[in-house]
Amino acid sequence: MAVKLSREEQYGIMALVDLAYNLDGGPAQVRQIAKRQRIPQRFLEQIFAKLRQADVVVGKRGPRGGYSLAKPANEIKLEEVMQALRPRLQEDDRSDAPALANLIDNVWSEIEGSFHSTLRQVSLANLCDRAKALGIDDVDKVVSSSSSMN
Q1: Is there a domain that residue 149 lies in?
Q2: Which of 12, 55, 85, 123 is deepest in the core (most CB within 10 A)?
Q3: Over the stretch 71-82, which tens digit does the pLDDT of each residue have?
Q4: Tens digit of each residue's pLDDT (9 = 90 or more) over 58-116
């Protein structure tokens, strides 16, 4: 059984890796990232709003505006991204829960702790390095049709 990412989490991580891969110090527009990564633009705008609220990215308005990373890619860990995009689950602190339910909850907490520990070890820079090592080039493709449409 694999841990599945929501579409929002997957798109958010893809967009951030794209941003880190192509940053060159300047901001990128959502429509450019959406086009490169084939992500619906409106959905990506909602994702970036959450990432901005969590201080993962910063936005700049205007014709040369867009989003850029709030800090270096090697300092942005997947745990921070997941916390920004994953909905908060309500804790169920029932004092009348059966002992077996408490045992399962404790084991699940240990598993979540291991999961978060792994997320803390992987940065956007790590993902960029892996993409380069695997020869993934769709991260840096600039869609030529976008410049001809303007």
Answers
A1: no
A2: 12
A3: 999 999 999 999
A4: 998 887 789 999 999 999 999 999 999 987 655 666 667 788 888 888 888 888 888 88
**Dist CA 23 CA 26 (whole Å):** 6
Total number of domains constituting the chain: 1
Beta strands in the chain (DSSP E): 57-60, 66-69
DSSP track, 41-63: HHHHHHHHHHHHHTTSEEEE-ST
Query: What is the CATH number for 64?
Result: 1.10.10.10
Q: Is the dihedral of CA 116, 117, 123, 128 positive or negative?
A: negative
Q: From the centroid of its chain, how far is CA 14?
A: 6
Q: Is residue 37 part of a domain?
A: yes
Higher pLDDT, 137 or 25: 137
